[in-house]
Amino acid sequence: MRKYGVSVEEWLAACEAAGPGVRVEIVDGEFVMHRVGGNPHHFVSYRLAEELMRQWPGVIASPPAQWALEFAEDGEMITSRVPDVLVDGESLVNDPVFVGVPHAVAEVWSPTNTVKEMNRKRSEYREAGAPVFIEAFLTDTLDVHLEWLVLKDDRWVHVAAASGTGELRVEGERPFSVVPNALLRPL
Predict the structure, then answer these.
(1) Average of per-residue pLDDT values in the chain
(2) How is the chain split into domains, by residue range?
(3) Three-state DSSP class for residue 130
(4) CA nearest 184: which of 37, 46, 52?
(5) What is the Cα–Cα distance from 177 to 187, expressed in whole angstroms?
(6) Is the pTM value of this prediction over 0.85?
């Protein structure tokens, strides 16, 4: 394992060199390349970002976004991720890499995601203090499944879930509702 991190410049250069269809993340100070999911995956990400911006006025939802999560003492990144959707403010537009605690983070899992990778990302997002985590995936019948989790007592707590034509509804300070399949195709 590498004992030091990666600079923002190195990360951005690696992302550019990887080309389209590949996401570059930093895990334990090393570059990790992931093939990006197919068209349904992207469509769900973009439509979810659009809905978050529509329903949460004043936020910016970036599908995807580069997020620096853990730094070495010298300021280089040890862990960085490229979540499918990251929700915060102007820094998502103005800065090449987001640093801080977002309003929400979403992952659209694909069949190539391993349980180990999924659990590690859940843990990293929880440890980073993200207050909302949205998980999505396509079922074997091509329905969209969404689960809304909130951070409470250092744990992800289930708030709501829905699949297909059922409505996901979240009440509270920042309410949100959507029919999952509307993120993939018109009903």
Answers:
(1) 91
(2) 37-64+82-183
(3) coil
(4) 46
(5) 15
(6) yes
